[in-house]
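Model it.
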Amino acid sequence: MRDLKLTERFKSTQVHALNSSESTGRKKKGSGAVANLVVPRLLPSADTLEPYIEPYLKPINLVENLAELYHRLECCPQSQKASLYVEKYSLIRSLGDQKLLRRCLRTARQNAEDVLSKVVLSAWLRFERREDELLGVSSMDCGGGCVLECPKVNLVHGFSSCSINDWCHCLQETKQETRSESVCLPDEEKDVSFCFGNEEVNCVRWRIGALSDPLKAMLYGGFAESKMRKIDFTQNRICPRGMRAVEVYSRAKRLDLFCPMTVLELLSFANRFCCEEMKSACDAHLALTVGNVDDALVLVDYGLEERAPLLVASCLQVLLRELPNSLYNSKVIKILCSSEAKERLAVVGYDSFLLYYFLSQVATEESMVSKTTMMLLEILEECAAERWQKALAFHQLGCVLLERKEYKYAEHCFAAAAEAGHVYSMAGVARTKHKQGQPYSAYKLISSLIFEHKPAGWMYQERALYNMGREKSFDLDVATELDPSLSFPYKYRALTKAEENQIKAGIIELHKIIGFKLSPDCLELRARLFLALQDYDNAMRDIRALLTLEPNYITSHGNITGKYLVHLLSREVQQKSQAECWMQLYEQWSSVDDVGSLAIIHQMLENEPGKSLLEFRQSLLLLRLNCQKAAMRSLRMARNHSSSMQERLIYEGWILYDSGYRDEALARADRSITIQRSFEAFFLKAYVLADTSLDSESSSYVIQLLEAALKCPSDGLRKGQALNNLGSIYVDCGKLDLAKACYKNALAIRHTRAHQGLARVYHQKNQRKAAYDEMTKLIEKAESNASAYEKRSEYCDRDMAKVDLDVATQLDPLRTYPYRYRAAVMMDEHKETEAVEELTKAINFKPDLQLLHLRAAFYESIGDLSSAFQDCQAALCLDPNHTDTLDLYQRTQKLSF
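Modeled.
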């Protein structure tokens, strides 16, 4: 907290944050503008705060649910796998791991069999990357990317054996296509005519009859038409042009000779006369003609009327790949959300839970309280068939109604979700009771949950709302102990301290969670506390960091945008030139002050809007802070604002790599290098290649790439990172002196994290004291140093290691290594029960793969094979290819049966 120069200024219980007459700081022109702003002046009361009811499934025992799901995935037929992976996606949403969620959706798409599932999952993956924000990219473009996301491939029914690394070749196929040429038809006697007034269409009787059994019966059966040479077709809703097309199709079996409107006539004719082969051909042909929203809006009605599933799927695909923008089109809303929408889609079998699950997620992200969101969730509930689907639909509907302050209906929905087995929805029932003036009923309800189930952090957090005084504080302390990732207890304690005139203590309380979990609401509250101290510099830092996470952020206690607060505070904070900003960025990067670095980059982008280099740096910081969605947005902006194709390819490569498309990312890097040899292109390629188990040959190639990168122009911040990475590869190859030189060079340009690599070199050389001292230097320099304490623990004796790891857990309770280490020590000391409890404590709020694997191994060693088996299944549900867990799983299987 060395940057927090705080003093207590206020003696009253009400905190008047910005009374300009009390300011002791420097006065500038415009001073008092912030002071006169009502919302930042008054801090919210602690008792008015409420935690969110999270709008996703939150199982009471996630490990058990994951294990059971893995068992079903092992046993189920291929046709059920896609839906099970969607269920898995729903189960793990509470973990907040965007990469794991995307992997679930990709695997679901890979195992999808029916066209609608392929269309929805492909569009969902596109939405997760928010490709609608990429300039120059059409929603229906394939571009030779992953075959699983190709719009044309999605329209082919049946299971595909493609992997996520298989590329689509439709771009090359399109280039090879030629214009349709005139077709030579067989010269056959036309022995029947279909008349339309004075106009006749001559046909070959047997070929028309071969189109369907009804036509065959009409032309060859006991009907009068079978004896006629001329048949009146005026009343059959087809024009002469359409009938000529039927005649041509009967002989050539081709549709590319006709315009779409004519093919629509053929589709209608095929429906009336049960020409199944022609109907399927028309359906597939028309599906490929849908290229934009206007086409889709016109053709979807034809598709529904004629029951053409591929055409409807193609139209839906366009609308889904245009999300979220298409949700603002009233015609789209009518198709998807109207009272008859579900019934119309049911005609072609598309009243699908998956479709409305995706649509409702998009709508909820756009606006939780909109009428569109309500309508989609109501249809989702109607489509729900399985228990987890009903629980999800009712729970999400309850969350929306709670936000809309429709408490009675919300209570009903939460209760229905709880009845479907979702215990967390009882928190929603309690909240709605509280809102309706029944706090005691809410208290009793949550207390009964704590008694009946394994206690969870959210239970105590919820009960605290209905408690007062010491009991409230006790519940919130227990909530933090059970789940330190819950932000509400920190916010409540911070405000309570502020109300007791301990603003500095309140800031320190928020600093605890911001140190390991960056969230806009905590940053906003800390900024407001800084404002209460008239510490405008730190307040500005937090608001700028907040806007990096959510550029359109509106304060939680008023309709004031974060951008407007920056505007007001700029009158109180000295503005820096771009050169001064670069100098400050080096300082903060060197001190590993990631939040400060985010803030200064935000200011630099304010000075130079659309600077792709800065947006890229912003994305790197956000990834380091585990803010994956915000990082991807910054990458998209960098890509959009890139000044050259070579630069754009690099940013596209990072987007693809972070989305799980490793091979495509490498291809982008290679294309960029062919245009211009650059630091970032070589670094991207080296980074992607290094993200695997490297053999000696691969390691040598990565070294060459990093050395090539270092020869290209770049700044010290990036070269420090490249030197650090190069040193790491050298250590893996046993080239310790070369590694040491890399780390020393990195430190010379103030890449402070290189201390960690240098410590590793000393450790490899059996110089543990030097390694320990090197990590101590990092701890002294770094603002964010939980990882430094964790790493230093490897270079000291057991007692000192335990002290360091306890500090690491205190600074960042989400880091899993300290729990694993402490549990291993306990096992060595034959404290098996305590060892399992140590791991369980962390697994309860973070079911990490490594934690689950270690606990399974512990269970196996003490003979609890059923528990070991369950943990293995849960771990494999998170990563089915984890070799060590697979070995343990197979071993426990053999021992169990």
